[in-house]
Design a protein that fits this description.
Quinone Oxidoreductase, Chain A, domain 1; ADH-like_N; six-stranded parallel beta sheet; alpha/beta; metal-binding; single chain; 2 domains; binds 1,4-dihydronicotinamide adenine dinucleotide; binds zinc ion; Rossmann fold; EC 1.1.1.284; binds the ligand N[C@@H](CCC(=O)N[C@@H](CSC=O)C(=O)NCC(=O)O)C(=O)O; S-(hydroxymethyl)glutathione dehydrogenase; globular; 371 residues
Length: 371
C-alpha cells in the first residue's frame, strides 16, 4: 500500500542514554536504583494515551534502591538507607494527609504531574543541558533518580530488593483495594476482572480477608491455572458466553457479588463490574487505568438501587507509613511477592521486557539496573 503523504504507525524503542542527574536540593533524595519492575502504567504512558504523559522523560515507578545522598533538611532518610520510591507521596501535613479519609497527598502532586521537582519547578535529569522530565515523581528506569523526601519509604535493610521492588505499585494496589478501599468482610463473594498482577493481588487480598468465593474473569483462559494459587476459586472467560458477563455472574451468584474489582483499564468492563454487583449493597472498585478521553457509564438506576462505585490509587495505602509494614509482612511470609516475579532481566533488555508484558505468562519483569 502506498504510504506517501500518509501518517505511518510503527514501533519505536526506549533508548538508553547517558543522563546527568543533578544533586538533590532541599527536601530531595538521590537514590541509587538497584532493581525496578515494569508496570502496565509505564506502557500506558509510553503509548501516548496518558494525558499527563510528558516527553522526553524517564519512566518507571516500581523499584527499590539505596539512598546515595540527601538534600538540606532531609531528616527521615540518610545515605545507605534501603528505600522504595513511592509515586503516591505522603507528607503527613497537607489537607489530604491530615483528613484521615484518603491516601492521596497534595504536597508534590502538581509538580510530579508535570515532570518536575517542587523546589524550583525544574528537572534534575538532563542530557547536554537539555532537561529530561521526571515521571510519577519516581523515574526508576534510571540507575540514579531524585525524588522528594515525601516520596520515599525507608525499609528493612534485610529485605531482598529484587523482590520488594514490587511493593512500589502493583501488589499493594491489589491488596489494598480489598483491605482499605472495599473492606471485604469474611464470607463475601468477590469478582475480579483481569488476572494480571493487580487482579491476582486482589484475589490474594480477598482470600486473606476470608472471602467465600473469588470469581476470576479473564479473556485469556491460560491465566486460570496460576490464579488458583492466588485464591481464585472459579473462572469465567467472557468469550465462552453469549450473555453479557454481568448477567452470567448475577445468575451464578443468586443476584450478584458483594464486591467486584476492575483490574484491566477497560471502561466497558468497568460497567460490567458495577452491574454484576448485588442490588442494595454490592460495591465495585475501579483499579485499572483507562486511556485519555475514555468515560464510564451506567444507568443511574444501578446506583439508586444501592450499588456503590469506587476507585483506588495505590490500594488506599499511605505510602511512607505502610510500605515498610508491607515489607515486614512479606519478610514474615504473610503476603506473596516472589510469586509475581516471572522474569529477571537487565536494563539493557528493557525493550524486550516491555515486549514480554504482552505475553500471557508474564506478570512482573524485574530489571537489575547495574549489570
Ligand atoms: N489504580 C492504581 O493505583 C493502579 C492501577 N494499575 C492499573 O491496573 C491495571 C492492571 O494492571 P496489571 O495487572 O499489571 O495488568 P495486566 O495487563 O497484567 O492484566 C490485565 C489482565 O486483564 C485481562 N483482560 C484484558 N482485557 C480483558 C477483558 N475485556 N475482560 C477480561 N479480562 C481482560 C488480560 O488478559 C490480563 O490478564 C492496568 O490498567 C494498570 O495501569 C496498576 C497499578 C496501580
Ligand atoms: N496520569 C494518569 C493517571 C493514571 C493513574 O490513575 N495512576 C494511578 C496509579 S497507576 C500506577 O501504576 C494513581 O494512583 N493515580 C492517582 C494519582 O494521584 O495519580 C492519567 O491522567 O490518566
Ligand atoms: Zn504501577
Ligand atoms: Zn500530604
Amino acid at each position: 500500500m502506498a504510504t506517501q503523504a500518509q501518517v505511518i504507525t510503527c514501533k519505536v524503542s526506549l533508548v538508553i542514554e547517558e543522563v546527568e542527574v543533578a544533586p538533590p536540593q532541599a527536601g530531595e533524595v538521590r537514590v541509587k536504583v538497584l532493581f525496578t519492575a515494569l508496570c502496565h502504567t509505564d506502557a500506558y504512558t509510553w503509548s501516548g494515551k496518558d494525558p499527563e504523559g510528558l516527553f522526553p522523560c524517564i519512566l518507571g515507578h516500581e523499584a527499590a534502591g539505596i539512598v546515595e545522598s540527601v538534600g538540606e533538611g532531609v531528616t527521615e532518610v540518610q545515605p545507605g538507607d534501603h528505600v522504595i520510591p513511592c509515586y503516591q507521596a505522603e507528607c503527613k501535613e497537607c489537607k489530604f494527609c491530615k483528613s484521615g479519609k484518603t491516601n492521596l497527598c497534595g504536597k508534590v502532586r502538581l509538580a510530579t504531574g508535570v515532570g518536575v521537582m517542587l523546589n524550583d519547578r525544574q528537572s534534575r535529569f538532563s542530557i547536554n543541558g537539555k532537561p529530561i522530565y521526571h515521571f510519577m515523581g519516581t523515574s526508576t528506569f534510571s540507575q540514579y533518580t531524585v525524588v522528594h523526601d515525601v516520596s520515599v519509604a525507608k525499609i528493612d535493610p534485610k529485605a531482598p530488593l529484587d523482590k520488594v521492588c514490587l511493593l512500589g505499585c502493583g501488589v499493594p494496589t491489589g491488596l489494598g483495594a480489598v483491605w482499605n478501599t472495599a473492606k471485604v468482610e469474611p464470607g463475601s463473594i468477590v469478582a475480579v476482572f483481569g488476572l494480571g498482577t493487580v487482579g491476582l493481588a486482589v484475589a490474594e487480598g480477598a482470600k486473606a480477608a476470608g472471602a467465600s468465593r473469588i470469581i476470576g474473569i479473564d479473556i485469556d483462559s491460560k491465566k486460570f491455572d496460576r490464579a488458583k494459587s492466588f485464591g481464585v476459586t472459579e473462572f469465567i472467560n467472557p468469550k465462552d458466553h453469549e450473555k453479557p458477563i454481568q448477567q452470567v455472574i448475577v445468575d451464578l451468584t443468586d443476584g450478584g457479588v458483594d464486591y467486584s474489582f476492575e483490574c484491566i483499564g477497560n471502561v466497558s468492563v468497568m460497567r460490567a463490574a458495577l452491574e454484576c454487583c448485588h442490588k442494595g449493597w454490592g460495591t465495585s472498585v475501579i483499579v485499572g487505568v483507562a486511556a485519555s478521553g475514555q468515560e464510564i457509564s451506567t444507568r443511574p438506576f444501578q446506583l439508586v438501587t444501592g450499588r456503590v462505585w469506587k476507585g483506588t490509587a495505590f490500594g488506599g495505602f499511605k505510602s511512607r507509613s505502610q510500605v515498610p509494614w508491607l515489607v515486614d509482612k512479606y519478610m514474615k511470609k504473610e503476603i506473596k511477592v516472589d510469586e509475581y516475579v516471572t522474569h529477571n532481566m537487565t536494563l539493557a533488555d528493557i525493550n524486550k521486557a516491555f515486549d514480554l508484558m504482552h505475553d500471557g505468562g508474564c506478570l512482573r519483569v524485574v530489571l537489575d539496573m547495574h549489570i
